Every structure is written in C-alpha cells, then in structure tokens.
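INFO  loader      accepted 1 record
INFO  loader      residues=423
INFO  predictor   begin
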Amino acid sequence: MNAPWKSGGPTGRDQFAAYLCDEASLDVLRPIAIEMGWQPEKCNKGGLRNAVQSLAITASPNILLVDLSESGDPLNDINALAEVCEPGTVVVAVGQVNDVRLYRDLIASGIHDYLLKPLSPSQVRDSLAQAQAVFTAPRSHDGGITKPHIATAVIGTRGGVGASTLATSLAWLFSADNKLPTALLDLDIHFGTGALVLDLEPGRGLTDAIENPSRIDGLFIERAMIRANDNLAILSAEAPISAPLMTDGSAFVQLEEEFRQAFEMTVIDLPRNMLINFPQLVADVNVVVLATELTLASARDTIRMLSWLKAHAPHARVIVVANKIQSGLAEISKADFEASIETRIQLSIPYDLKAASTAAKLGQTFADANRSTRAGGAIRELSRMILDEAGEASEKGAAKPSLLGKFDLKAMMSKSTKKETAA
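INFO  predictor   done
INFO  writer      dumping tokens
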C-alpha cells in the first residue's frame, strides 16, 4: 500500500480514516486524531473486513489505520485491502500478534507500520506523524537525483548451458550483496525456474500481465511480484503446457518500462526463442550476458546470436560467458572457440556438479549457496562486470530515473531494517 504515488493527490479524499475493533483502542485514537486536525468521526468501529467493504464504495483516505485483530489470514486480507485502496494511501496496521515474521511480511506487502495492542498514545502519535510525513514528502523523482537503471538480459546459446542459473544468481547478488532494488523477470512462461530456484511459488502475476497488458502499472507490479528478499522481487510463471503463449509482446515491453521506474536493476531470463519472436525485448537492455559452452553447436549459435545482437541491439554491451567448463573435456578449445566467434570469452565458469546439487537442496541460488567455490566467485565477478556498466552510465550522465518513481520501496526497506533490528 505505499502504492504508486501521484503528485497533487486526487480531490475529495479524506485526510484520515481508522477501523478499529475495540472501544479501548478507539478511546486512545480519537484524542490524537483531534490533536492532528482530523475528524474524530473518521475513527470507525470495525476491523479490516469493515475497511474493505467501506473503501470499496468510497474514496480511500490519505492515511488509513486498520485493525487486523479479527483477521484469520492478515496477509491475504491485506491484499484484499490493496484492491480497494487508491494510489498513495499510507496504511498503518494494528494487531495483537507479536511476531517478527508477520511484521516483515506486512512491511513487504506495503504496510507503513504495524502497532501492537494495547495501544499507547505516544506510539500511535509517532506512527501517524511518520505516516503523514511519508504522504507529504516529495518523492525522489521530484528531487532531480537520478541513478542509472541497468537492465541485463541473460540468454543461452543452447538449452542447458545454465542461463537461468546465471540469471537467478545475478539477481540475488545485486539485491543481497549490493543492496540494489532488483527485479527478476523469467520469460520462460511454461518451464521457468526463477521462482523454483528460490523455493517460491510463482503465482499468476506474469500470466495475468500477458492476458491483460492494459492492467500493467506500478500498482500491478507491486501486487503481482513475489518478494525473495527485501530488495529482490520476482515475476515468473508456470503456465499450463496445454495453453500456448498468445501475446504480441506488448506486455513484456510494458513490464520492462515499469521495472525501470520501480527498480535500479532488472535481470531478464530470456529464452532464445523469445528473443526471436519478440526482438523488442532487447530495445532498452544495457547488458546482454550470452551464456555458451565450448561445443560445436554453441559456437555456431554464438556466431549467429552475436550477429543478431549487433543488428538489433547495437547499444548493448555483450558479455560472452563460457559456462560449465571442464578442464580437458571441452569439445572445442577456448582458443579455437574464440577464433571461430571472432570475439573474446570474457569469463569462464568451471563446472561444479556438487555445488549445483548443494544449491538445489538448500533452495538457494547457485551464487548464494556456493560463495567459497571457484564457480561462485566467477559469477560474482560477472556481477561486478555488469555493475561497472552502471558506473559508466552514471559518469556519462546517461542515467534514467530509478527507484521511487512510483514506489516508496526504499523508505519501506530502510524502515523494515530498523524495526526488525529493534524487534
């Protein structure tokens, strides 16, 4: 619910409304509402369900205080609340469950703050004052401070070369090690493994976007993406294999545009057939990681794809990565491979079956589960090569507006970190 914010705010919205289950909490809240210049009549009896029913037929307020005490499934009910809240609403939740995990999940879902009952006047006053400050504060896109957004497409020259492993690892490193708000878009609609690698359910976000491209906006992105950590959100699918992909690609382009507004890094796991069918996907990509292996078939397809990228994405920096290298067992030597493709292999990643098995058993990305291995170190080096592109873009002044164009995720994340430490 720190939903996409629009300057100027819609007219006709109340400054404040509250839905609390018990009279004791209402007795604490009403004097504070009067003190802050709000109407005490806006402090309503009833919890989250009452709030959803009421806001479904009326405009949502700037600041909403809602009670979760009677909710059996707070996270699902919060999603129902998000459906009826207008952009910009700052939501403060109240509840009886003192659980750090619940707090983290609520913050990740967009809640500004979570207060425990019984309420104390100072606690409520401070939280509402902070919520008011969040609502009235100028967003980063108004401040003239811009950072480069780097979009990276990871493409495999052949099936099984490990492009998805590289994509998920890079997204994790950008978000966890570099603390950059990152989006991972897995465009293998039927057989994608982006969510599976992280032991997550993919949800219906991507299939909904394909079916209804007109729905894609900042608020849709906030609701549809699955959060893997504080800085990483994933959009993937497991579409039925009986359902062919019916799209002109406009949904994917719109998703990339929204990612540029909401995140600082985008990683696209881009199957080569999607590249052929929707060449517009690389129109605004900054870096292309071309994953290959030292085989005759890969050499042929690397040549073809390099030629295609030169014609369709001349602006993108192409990094050729030889993956799963086994010393003495390569079908083609590295020197012969480079001579064939007329381009240098910038990075070689050794084959490590044990490390791959470890990552799968732990439900973690390869790079996260294998930080001390040579293969893990090579992937971290790849992430640094991509981040160098961000530095160069910043120096050239070719940056695009980044985070907080539509989301207040940074403030939410820093707030989550502070509260989690306190808890």
